[in-house]
TrEMBL record:
The PH domain, residue ranges: 36-158
InterPro entries referenced in this protein's UniProt entry, alphabetically: PH_bac
Protein name: Transporter
One Pfam family matching this protein: bPH_11
The species this protein was found in: Lentzea tibetensis
Amino acid sequence: MTRVLLALAVFAFFALCVYGMWHGWQRRARQQAATLPEFPKKPATLGDDLIPSTTGVYVGTTNAGNWQDRIQAGDIGHRAEATLRLVPEGLSIERIGAEDLFIPKTAIKDVRTDKGLAGKVMFGDGLLVFQWELEDRLFDTGFRGDDKSVYEQWVVALSQEENSAGGKA
């Protein structure tokens, strides 16, 4: 009988911890939804890919400079399988099971490879991270590609786009 009560107590403690985490996630999402600007919508039509698209996982979006400060408003905080496309209008992250994320070309400030973002840590530079601006706020958006050998191509292509748009020197 003592073992059954102990097992029930451990289960109840575990359930309370899960409820607390869920409640905290919901509260944080509500707070962010009230203070964040509306994220850009993907245009109805997009131009042709400037470089070949790549598949992988959308890791998340954080406030720039704080790799663990995940944006949770709406479904922005949900990881999802995705296809990453660079088109003349900007960067399109087409997510499966979640709303697509679109970053206008003029909003992209930097692109880099990194080892961690939004609680996801990889060996080496396993993530492609895009820094972008929306209404004077900087965000980092992470993508873990299935083929990491294309990362350099993405960094070069976006750096050239920034230079031609007068973004980066």
